[in-house]
Amino acid sequence: MEPILASKRIRVIGAGVNGLWCAIRLLESGYCNVTLISKSWSPFLTSNVAVGVWEPYHSGDEQDPKLIQSWSTSSWDHLLRLKLKYGEIETGIQLVSGFKPFREATEDPWWKDLVFNYRVLNDEHKLKLGYEDFQYVSFHTTLIVDTTQYLRFSLERFKSLGGKTETRQITSLAEVSRDCDMVINCTGLGSYHLCGDHTLTPIRGQLVLVRYSQLRHWSIHDDFYYIFPRRNAVILGGTFTEGDWNTEISQADTDDIIAKCTKCFPDLKHCDILGSRVGLRPGRPSVRVELERTSFGPIVHNYGHGGIGVTLHFGCAINVVDIVNDELAERH
Question: Are residues 163 and 234 in the same domain?
């Protein structure tokens, strides 16, 4: 990279997985003046509430499925590479096997050859495992990310590469664009107000954490409840309420989640409840990864990932850096 491009001043807004890895990829690509700005930091981010499972799914009515496939594949390769190089404890990335039962017949997903050990249970195995009421049950090994540990690992990596951080709330893109060459907007649902993007909608998710060390497999059901083991807890979920801005914990939701999950796994009734968490997923008809040329400078937007931010984050970061390279080279 030419020195004049490497010295360009770039500001990234948002310290979740999307903002952090955009900032890291910029530094790894040769840019040396990158500042990450956020009003909040881990563990007080939407990313901290995410289950963190790598699981591509439909993310919006207008989304290009080829982009989801490309971004998801890049993120899978990235997460697996980090897990193998640095280990589970340092990165928070685990390989865990589990079951995905559907009450209606369904097709194999496009990513079945990307994950490990994907197979469909026959009737004998479904009966043996208690899934006889389901038409289609798959089993595979995927990546599950403890997002709090992953954010800690990622922020340390960003700083080790020379990245700078700044804690403040951004109220306008014009404000943050002052005295810099490029802004990357990774504010998630915050772009509803920051950009006036009212195609964004909150998708409220609540989950429950319990202490249970005997669970070895995860389970995702098609009526949206799930059970995921982590190193220090088991996650029970969940809710998926579109248009709900409420971030308060609902006892009714907690009770409903526990009732559904313990019906499937009765032993969970005797677990210690560690607490509940609520997060607002940034829903949008399609993920927005694009350049906007404004009167106050170029903005690259990267938000609207719905409930699959972890699944898409690294692929989107690669896309963002490509856009930055092209725009700054053209301006140069």
Answer: no
